[in-house]
């Protein structure tokens, strides 16, 4: 059986109707041809920002992570597990893809841990249990998973979606694709870096060519590539015509390997 495909959706795709239409049309066509389990993992920073602005609340980030105080975690949950997740489910329904909406801690898919008090309700994750996902795969469901985790003390946590997708890929031993609104990792001149290994990536992070959210994304990709022994791809959801090739392992965007 082909390895499950874990697709992380990022950038501002949730606000782009044309992009969502193209993506889910492609997913629908792909699933008709290939007998392959697919998992969608998503964040939704643009939706969080919209809600925060409407409530006149400020957003603070540290090293690419959103500081999530106790008075803001409910807003993050509403944005990610509510608005973003159900919006993606509605697109799946439109294209007749049998889907189910989950968060990271449903069925202990991953284990979530609070990073530190300074960041508030922000968590990191490690691989968990396959059982729930395997049951869903066997019954023809495509899980759509928001990046909300819950630790062993019942604390709700906002998890970086790239790191969440990596942990899920490790849980199911799947292939990982990180889709965003950029074509891949870019050099200082804005040119696409087609292939990147650990040593080259660390140099680019050290000199700030890769920084903030892209640094987190790159390190997540390297971690997955190292532990799965498969390359990970960072690419754009805007390249609809190339997505099926990407899903099948063709070089689209940046290929990251350990």
From TrEMBL:
Alphabetically, the GO molecular function entries are: acetylglutamate kinase activity; ATP binding
GO BP annotation list: L-arginine biosynthetic process via ornithine
Show which residues form the site (Transition state stabilizer): 8, 217
Give the keywords, sorted: Amino-acid biosynthesis, Arginine biosynthesis, ATP-binding, Cytoplasm, Kinase, Nucleotide-binding, Transferase
Instruction: Kindly list the places in or outside the cell where this protein is found, as annotated in its UniProt entry.
Output: Cytoplasm
Q: What is its EC number?
A: 2.7.2.8
Q: What does this protein do?
A: Catalyzes the ATP-dependent phosphorylation of N-acetyl-L-glutamate.
The identity of this protein, by name, is Acetylglutamate kinase
Annotated source species: Candidatus Pantoea edessiphila
Q: Gene that codes for this?
A: argB
């Amino acid at each position: 059986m082909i390895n499950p495909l874990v697709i992380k959706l990022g950038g501002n795709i949730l606000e782009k109707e044309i992009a969502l239409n193209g993506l889910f049309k492609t997913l629908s066509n792909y699933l008709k041809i290939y007998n392959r389990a697919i998992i969608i993992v998503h964040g939704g920073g643009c939706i969080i920002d919209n809600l925060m602005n409407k409530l006149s609340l400020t957003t603070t980030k540290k090293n690419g992570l959103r500081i999530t105080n106790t008075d803001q975690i409910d807003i993050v949950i509403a944005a990610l597990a509510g608005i973003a997740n159900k919006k993606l489910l509605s697109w799946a329904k439109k294209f007749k893809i049998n889907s189910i909406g989950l968060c990271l801690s449903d069925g202990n898919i991953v284990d979530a841990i609070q990073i530190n008090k300074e960041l508030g309700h922000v968590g990191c994750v490690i691989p968990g249990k396959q059982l729930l996902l395997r049951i869903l795969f066997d019954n023809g469901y495509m899980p759509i998973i928001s990046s909300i985790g819950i630790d062993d003390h019942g604390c709700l946590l906002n998890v970086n979606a790239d790191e969440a997708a990596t942990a899920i890929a490790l849980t199911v031993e799947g292939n990982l694709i990180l889709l965003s609104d950029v074509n891949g990792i870019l050099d200082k001149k804005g040119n696409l870096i087609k292939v990147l290994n650990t040593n080259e990536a660390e140099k680019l992070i050290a000199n700030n060519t890769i920084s903030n959210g892209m640094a987190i994304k790159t390190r997540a990709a390297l971690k997955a590539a190292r532990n799965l022994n498969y390359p990970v791809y960072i690419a754009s959801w805007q390249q609809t015509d190339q997505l099926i090739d990407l899903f099948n392992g063709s070089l689209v965007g940046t290929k990251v390997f350990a």
